[in-house]
């Protein structure tokens, strides 16, 4: 296809722009659910409120809850756990966020808390370890929190960027693990008089009696242990914070924790250790990551998330043998990181099974599901368009099914362009309309538009052709962001082109059959290649 200065959908937008971007998304149960993205826009020009927003989102992002209300509730819970731990958690998230601002890192990422969540974990961890050693309210521990929380931001800027670029997945809480283990190693193995530590061990022996009520009570505590908090009320508040952000995410996390407890029982772990939530928190994070945060929530991603949660718990004794028994170092969230990243790699290599979410588009499981359904509608319709074109059927299926009220609106626009009232649009009439409407388009673009829309090659555009094009354009624009967010991760070769193989992956992920030989031949005929650019693909969506 001839390369144009504007994409086809942009040219068509000059003719008629939808009055509104109609959303197919289901409304949230209440305003505070999901990411509250509108708050970012409202506070963008209010520095003080915006800074508070940065940090509260950073608190919530530890457990994937990009929501300031969730972050506020979690921070409150940590102060209930211990005022010292709460304060150091706050110092940690502020330190890492301020470091990101000082380094002039991406403001949208800062605003969404992506440079704060590792910092708050360092603050909570060091405060917890210090509390059992020197005790609370110690200047040197506070200084260590500031330094090592800031270090996580430096790691996100260097290690994190390299990791995401190289492996195409999030670094998760690896910066927190590295920074905290580095600090603990320095404190434990270098002579120094300032820092004293309590014991941090995991018992992997098997005795004692299992009591179901205590196991059930341990489930909220597992949510608290994500932040190294062991009180029931604290864990319950953190579970509530996640439920505010995403009811589905909170449910999936609970299922993951139950599987973690099951794994611990299979391994014969002492019930006292299970009851403290130490065998559940990694499974909470793993289940949420796979079942709705980095992949579209559906039955398949739920099953993979369950498996990831189960194996996260199974990896704890292995890491304890490597870190805890010989060196006295805690496993922290390494089981979650290692097993989840392993599942990321596994899912990329398996036949199409679950639909990934582009890292820049990660929001909440509910929003991912809505975006997926919108993209599924677009991709399925495209497949049906291909089938109709090959079989010789009418491809004006949207126009044919449109109600009379919609056709009336289309006729109004068409008649406004059709100056000579002959029922067909010419290049000159399109040019006259665009100039009169103050939407000037170049002659080359007008000729291009006429050529691609005039499917019967008569040099004119009739009402049915015009109506079908506008309806397809409106549908595509209503779902464009969703479609982009879903489709971009399928570009496995990262060459900004969509191959037949990648197209089949996208089709299979939404339950469609792969392209037939006839359909592949049609695409190659239209694009003169076995792959096509994004703009070419949009043309195919609009014109096939």
CATH class of the largest domain, anyone?
A: Mainly Alpha
Contiguous runs where pLDDT drops below 50 for at least 5 residues = 1-6, 17-27, 200-207
- How many strands in all? 4
Strand order of the largest sheet: 1-2
The major beta sheet can be summarized as: 2 strands, antiparallel
Domain count: the total is 3
> Helices and strands, in N-to-C order?
HHHHHHHHHHHHHHHHHHHEHHEHHEHHEH
State the helical fraction: 55-70%
Characterization of this structure:
This protein is mostly helical and 544 residues long. The protein folds into three domains: 152 residues, Ammonium transporter fold; 157 residues, Orthogonal Bundle (Ammonium transporter fold), CATH 1.10.3430; 175 residues, EF-hand (Recoverin, domain 1, Orthogonal Bundle), CATH 1.10.238.10. 67% of the residues lie in helices and 2% in strands. It contains 26 helices and four strands. The strands form two sheets. The protein has a two-stranded antiparallel ribbon. Helix 5 crosses helix 8. The relative contact order is 0.10.
């Amino acid at each position: 296809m001839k390369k144009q200065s504007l994409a086809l959908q942009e040219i068509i937008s000059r003719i008629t722009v939808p009055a509104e971007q109609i959303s197919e998304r289901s409304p949230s149960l209440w305003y505070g659910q999901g990411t509250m993205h509108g708050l970012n826009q409202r506070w963008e020009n209010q520095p003080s409120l915006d800074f508070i927003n940065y940090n509260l989102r950073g608190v919530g992002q530890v457990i994937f809850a990009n929501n300031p209300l969730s972050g506020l509730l979690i921070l409150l819970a940590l102060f209930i756990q211990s005022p010292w731990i709460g304060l150091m958690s706050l110092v940690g998230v502020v330190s890492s966020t301020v470091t990101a601002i000082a380094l002039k890192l991406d403001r949208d990422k800062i605003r969404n808390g992506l440079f704060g969540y590792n910092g708050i974990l360092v603050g909570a961890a060091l405060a917890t370890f210090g509390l059992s050693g020197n005790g609370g309210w110690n200047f040197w521990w506070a200084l260590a929190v500031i330094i090592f929380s800031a270090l996580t931001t430096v790691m996100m800027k260097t290690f994190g960027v390299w990791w995401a670029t190289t492996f195409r997945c999030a670094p998760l809480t690896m910066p927190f693990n590295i920074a905290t283990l580095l600090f603990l190693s320095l404190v434990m193995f270098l002579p120094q008089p300032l820092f004293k530590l309590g014991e941090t061990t995991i018992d992997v022996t098997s005795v004692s009696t299992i009591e179901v009520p205590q196991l059930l009570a341990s489930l909220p505590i597992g949510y608290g242990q994500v932040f190294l908090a062991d009180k029931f009320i604290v864990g319950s508040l953190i579970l509530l914070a996640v439920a505010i952000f995403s009811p589905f995410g909170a449910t999936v996390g609970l299922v993951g924790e139950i599987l973690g407890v099951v794994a611990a029982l299979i391994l014969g772990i002492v019930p006292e250790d299970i009851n403290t939530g130490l065998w559940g928190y990694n499974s909470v994070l793993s289940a949420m990551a796979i079942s709705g945060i980095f992949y579209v929530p559906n039955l398949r991603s739920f099953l993979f998330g369950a498996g990831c949660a189960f194996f996260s718990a199974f990896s704890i004794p292995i890491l304890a043998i490597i870190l805890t028994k010989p060196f006295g170092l805690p496993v922290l969230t390494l089981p979650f990181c290692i097993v989840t990243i392993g599942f990321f790699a596994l899912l990329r290599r398996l036949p199409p099974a679950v639909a990934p979410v582009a890292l820049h588009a990660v929001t909440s499981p509910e929003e991912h599901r809505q975006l997926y359904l919108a993209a599924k509608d677009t991709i399925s319709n495209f497949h049906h368009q291909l089938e109709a074109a090959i079989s010789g059927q009418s491809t004006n299926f949207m126009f044919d099914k449109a109600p009379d009220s919609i056709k009336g609106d289309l006729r109004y626009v068409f008649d406004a362009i059709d100056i000579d009232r002959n029922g067909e649009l010419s290049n000159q009439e399109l040019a006259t309309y665009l100039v009169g409407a103050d939407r000037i388009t170049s002659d080359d673009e007008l000729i291009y538009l006429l050529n691609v829309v005039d499917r019967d090659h008569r040099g004119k555009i009739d009402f049915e052709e015009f109506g079908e094009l506008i309806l397809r354009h409106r549908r595509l624009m209503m779902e464009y962001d969703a479609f982009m967010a879903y489709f971009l991760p399928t570009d496995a070769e990262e060459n900004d082109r969509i191959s037949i193989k990648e197209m089949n992956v996208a089709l299979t992920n939404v339950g469609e059959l792969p392209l037939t030989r006839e359909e592949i031949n049609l695409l190659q005929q239209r694009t003169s290649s076995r792959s096509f650019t994004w703009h070419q693909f949009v043309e195919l969506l609009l014109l096939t």
